[in-house]
């Protein structure tokens, strides 16, 4: 996360526009306990996500309002701007639909909760344009420290995309 924060600091110093994602998590355990993990990763938006936004702006062939579906996985392969999918999707076969908001003038947010029915070691999150795993328009993929889940657990992921204006 320090690399992203350093990049944003330098971009602000030189008046350069930046766009980055922050993923936070809260775990709701089957036993009723709740664990607030806070920010678990910061990363840049993928090339596919940027292309999706440009296509929406250019000709409306995409709709950025569709980037609202959360998925999780078990691959710890480092995230990369060239990613087009999760490394190993895991959990429900249909992505969780997020609830969108705008917590400040330069931040867009989607909050989605994924319920698990088996024991998994979750280490990645992705934000997508569709609920179906067969369609992979990936906005952002973030890899983080393992979150172990069992049947009945759920993770509420909060994805914030922050855009900072240049000067």
List the helices and strands and how they pair.
Blueprint: H1 2-14, E1 18-28, E2 34-44, H2 47-59, E3 69-73, E4 89-90, E5 96-97, E6 99-104, E7 107-115, E8 120-128, E9 138-149, E10 154-164
Antiparallel strand pairs: 1-2, 1-10, 3-4, 3-5, 3-8, 6-7, 7-10, 8-9
How would you describe the overall organization of this protein?
The structure is a single chain. This protein is of the alpha+beta class and 167 residues long. It is 16% helix and 47% strand. The strands form two sheets. The chain has a five-stranded antiparallel sheet with strand order 2-1-10-7-6. It is globular.
Question: What is the share of helical residues?
Answer: 10-25%
Average of per-residue pLDDT values: 89
Terminal Cα separation, in Å?
24 Å
Query: How many β-strand runs?
Result: 10
Computed CA radius of gyration, to the nearest angstrom: 16 Å
**Dominant shape:** globular
Estimated structural class: alpha+beta
Strand order of the largest sheet: 2-1-10-7-6
Low-confidence stretches: none
Order of helix and strand elements from N to C terminus: HEEHEEEEEEEE
Q: In percent, how much strand structure appears in the residues?
A: over 45%
Number of contiguous helices: 2
- Give a short account of the largest sheet: 5 strands, antiparallel
